[in-house]
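Key idea: predict the complex, not the pieces.
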Amino acid sequence: MSSSSQVTESWISSFCGLLGHEYFAEVSEDFIEDDFNLTGLQSQVPMYKEALEMILDVEPEDDDDEEEEEEEDEEDDEILGDERPTAYRRASDRRHLRIASDLSVIESSAELLYGLIHQRYITSRPGIQQMAEKYELQHFGTCPRVHCNSTKVLPVGLKDSPGHETVKLFCPSCLDVYTPPNSRFQTVDGAFFGTTFPSLFFMTFTDLDIGSGIRNNPSSTAQALLQIQTETTKGTSTTPANVTSINGVAPHNLAPGIGAGNIYGPRIYGFRVSERAKSGPRMKWLRMKPADVTELDETRRYWENPPDDADRPHDDDLNMVDVAEGKSVDSRKKISARRKRTNGSGNGGGSPMDTNGVGAAG
Amino acid sequence: MSDAGQGVAASPRDPVREKVRELVPGIERLSLTYGAMDDFNSETDSDYTSYWRDWFISSRGNEYFCEIDEEYLTDRFNLTGLNTEVQYYQYALDLVTDVFDFDCDDDMREQIEKSARHLYGLVHARYIVTTRGLAKMLEKFKKSDFGKCPRVMCDSQPLLPMGQSDMANSSPVKLYCARCEDLYNPKSSRHAIIDGAYFGTSFHNILFQVYPIMLPPKTQRRYEPRVFGFKVHSAAALARWQADEREKLKDRLRGARIESGFEEDEAEAEEEDDDEEMEGDGFEGATVQQ
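Result:
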C-alpha cells in the first residue's frame, strides 16, 4: 500500500502550493493518520469524515464498521509509522463521481480541517522543525518596523478558534504582531497557525540569534551612522556581562529590537518634541527595555524587600537569572547575592519555574 | 495608491511633443494642450499646464509626493542653497517649471531629468511644511495615500512619510504611525527607494502640531505572547516593566496637568484582565484542543 502516486499531486501539496498558502507547512500523513492528533476536531468540522478522506486522497469502503476497530488500535504515540488505516484506499479516480455541490462543501471542510490539524502539527516536533526550515528561508517575511532591521517573523493567530481573525506575523525582536504586507494573506485564518506557535518556536530554538541582523547588518550607511551615534551616547546596556539568561531567555535574545537607541524620538528641526506637548511622545514605553535586564527579575526584586508575614522561598526557586560560572562576578550587591548556577547543570532540585535548557533537546 | 500614471509615464519624452516644442518654443506657456495633457488641466492650480509636475506626481512610485505650487517654485527665496545641491540646477528648474528650452542629446536630457526629480524632491521637503503644503499632505493623509500602519493594535492608522535625515542620499523614506509613534518601512519596493530627505525629519511632527485634532488616541492594548494560553514569562515581565514606565509617564503628565491622550476606560479594563483572562479566553487555546 504505497502512500501517494507519483503522477498526481497529493491534496496536501496542492493546497500548500496555492497562492496565499505560502505560510503553510505540509503536514505529514503520518501525523494526520494518528487519530490522537485529531481529537475533538470531528465536532468542529462539518462532513469531517469526507474532509479527512479528501486530505488523505482516499475513499472509504462502503461499510463503516472499521471505525470501531480503529479506535481500539489507537495508540498515544505521536507517530504511528507507516501503518495506514486499512479501510482506506486510493480514490482520486472515483472522486469526480461525487455531486459537484457536495464536493465544494467537502473542499471547504477539508481546508478547515487541514488548517486545524496544521495548528497542532506545527507545535509538534517534526512540524516545528519544518517551520524552522521555512523560517530560515524567510518564507514568512521580515518585520516592517524600521528599528527591527528586517528581523525574520513567524505567522501567528490571535485566536485558536477559526473564523475570527486572519493570520498575523509575530516579530520576536519587538514582541509585537503585524498584518502581512500582501493582501493575499488576508484570506488565511489565523487559527490555522494558532496563538502558541511563535512563542513555542523561540522557546524551542533558544540558540537562534534573533538580534543578529540588528547588531551586525545595518542595511544602509545612515543606519550605521545612527547606530554608532546611539551606541556612544547611550552606553547600550548595563546588563552584567556574565548573565546568561533572564526569565528563561538569553539577554541578547530578549526583544533585541527595542530599548534605548531603538526608540523613535520625534524632533522638529533637530529639537526634541517635549512629552508635555499635545503632540508629544506618549508611546515610548511600548519600545522601552531596562538597560540592565536583571531589573526584570521580579521574583528576586520582590523578596529583596519581603512583606513581613511571608515565608521566603528557597534560593533555588528565586533563580530567574542565570549567571555564567567562572567569570568575574559583578561587584554590585544584587548580583553577588545571587547563587551562581550553570545552565542545565544536573542539580536535581532545580526550580520548577526554571525554563532554561528546555529547548536543549529540541 | 493610484495607477493613474501608468498611461502617461513616458509622455514628456514623447517625440511629437519634442517636435512641437522645437517648432514653437515655450508652447506650454501658451497653455496649448494636446492629447493626454487635456486630462491634467483640471488638476493644476496655475493658469497654465504644469506639465512636468503633473507627470511627476502621477507617475508610478511617486504617490507620496504632492504638487508644489507654481508660485512657490518660482520664488527664488524658497530655493536658497539648492543650486549647490543639484547638478544642472538651472536646466532642472526650467524643466520642473515647464520652461525648459534647451537642445541637447539624450544622455544630457537624462541627466537633467534626474536632476529635476532631485530638485523637486528637495523643494518638496521645504514646501510640505508650509501652510499650503501641510494642507495638501493632510488631504493625502486622510485618504491613506501613504498606507496604513502594519501593527495590528494600531487598527489601520494612516501613516505619514518621513526621512531619518535631512541630508539627501542618506536613507530612504520611512513611514511614521502617530498611534504607536514608531517608524515602518514602506511595503512596496518602489517606495522604499525614494530618498527620505524629500520629506525630512520634521514634517510629520509639524503636521500634528498644526493639526492636533488629527492626533489619534493612543492605545494601551498590546499583544501578549502566549503558549497554550499561558503568558510567556520573559515577555510578560517586560510588558509589566513597560506598563510601569507608562504609568510613570502618566503620573508626570498628571502632575503637569496635561492630558495624556490615551484611550479611555482601558486602564481599569487592563487591571482586571490580568487575572480574569486566565479563566476566560486565556484558556481558549487549551480548551479547544481537548
